[in-house]
Amino acid sequence: TYVEAVVGEPKLINPLFASVNDVDMDISRLVFSGLMQYSEEQQLVPDLAATYSLSDDKKTYRFNLREDVVWHDGQPFTARDVAFTFELIQDPAVASPLLVGFQGVTITVIDDYTIEFLLAEPFQPFLSSLTVGILPEHIWEDVTPDRLRLAQDNLRPVGTGPFVFHKLAKDDSGFIFRYELQRFESYYETPPYIEFFIFQFFGEYETDLGAIQALRQKKVDGLHFV
Asked: Residue 101 and residue 97: Cα distance in Å, rounded?
């Protein structure tokens, strides 16, 4: 078990919104996975994608997806999930901060494990925007776009990433002070060596009840950003 002290609080652990909150982004990256990811050398490499190709005119990206991926609830991952996620991003009613990066992009599902993106104009950094986590269509399809931010699945997310949501704890004021993730044993890559990844949240760094004091007293194993 690894316990990390963090000053802040999770609000929307959802790839469509997480980029505006560092805490949400940290947890989202452990729970969700994208078509692409950055390697340890900071190179863009496939993640949920198995392979991809780019047309000669640099406008059509075709992705062949991995067929060994399941969601944390055991449902199979398919190209429909990918299309669903990016169509939500493109919906103005969702109000995702990622919208601007996908305007004018046409998404076509070829089959269960093949998907295409057609850009209006060549855009070299497009692959880097595909590191955003993919949402499960079967969980989110019945939520209307204008209510996405209010759904409880934003705090109890289901993804395909290396860690699965385990539980959270709130105090009487509603402040989430503890958030627990557990290793996902069916992860398509090598599962993490850490079984439980726990975030302990604090209102501030200093004071007797702050994050730094918790580290000094060895109540936590690490401290997120000073």
From this structure: 9
